[in-house]
Structure formats: C-alpha cells, structure tokens
Design a protein that fits this description.
The protein is mainly alpha-helical. The chain is built from two helices and no strands.
Amino acid sequence: MIFVEYGALDNCKNVMESYGEICVHCNQCGRFDKKEIKKENKSESEEI
C-alpha cells in the first residue's frame, strides 16, 4: 500500500484538520481543483 502525502500550504484554510503539517485534500485552498474552489467561494458569498 502506498500513501501519497502533501505538505500543507502556507495559505491552508483547514489548519485544524491538517495540524499545519499534512494536506488532507479538502481543496478549500484550490490546490487540486481550481473550478471547485470557485464554486465554494460563490456559495459562501451567497450565504452572507
């Protein structure tokens, strides 16, 4: 079994889950899917 781990970015939006060390692939920073983060940001602005 192989595990691929990425370090958390400086602009990590999910620091509590990643402990500031290991990326948990939540995509809140847009690291993996740029289109998906735009959708999340749009829904956040609609809630306000």
